[in-house]
Amino acid sequence: DNCPRYSNVPLGRNIKLFTDLRFPGIGQLLQSMNQSFPTRLNAKRVGVLIVDESTTGERDAIDFIKKNPSFDLMVIAIGDPYTTGFAADLASDPDFNYLVRVPKYSDLSTTFSQVLDKLCTIIKRSFVISLKH
After folding, report:
1. Do you know which Gene3D superfamilies this protein is assigned to (predicted)?
2. Of 22, 41, 47, 90, which residue is the least packed, with the fewest Cβ within 10 Å?
3. What pTM was computed for the model?
C-alpha cells in the first residue's frame, strides 16, 4: 500500500530506475494509520512503528504526531541511538513506555516479549483511566 507505483524494477537491468524511486516518508504512513483507526468511542488507538537509520520524513512525522494526539505511538528503533535519535520524538510520552531500542534486526526476536509487555501496560493503563471517567 505504501510502495510507489511501478516499483517492481528488475535490479539486474536498470539499477538507476530503482535508485530513482521515492518511497513515501513516515509522515504519510502515520496519516494513513490515523485514518484507518476505528471511530468507536473510547477505543484505544495504538500504532507500532519500526524505524531505522534509513527512515525518511521523520520531521513531518514528528509534526504530525504533535498536531494529532488522537492515537498513541510505540516506536521500535533499530540501530545506533545516534542515527535513530528522532525515535524518542516520535514515541508517545512517556517515551520509556513507548520506545524500544534494538541494536540490529536480528535482535528483534529477543525483544518481542519486551514489546508485548509494554503494549499490555499501555492498554491496561488506558483501560483503568477510562474506568475513572
Report:
1. von Willebrand factor, type A domain
2. 41
3. 0.68
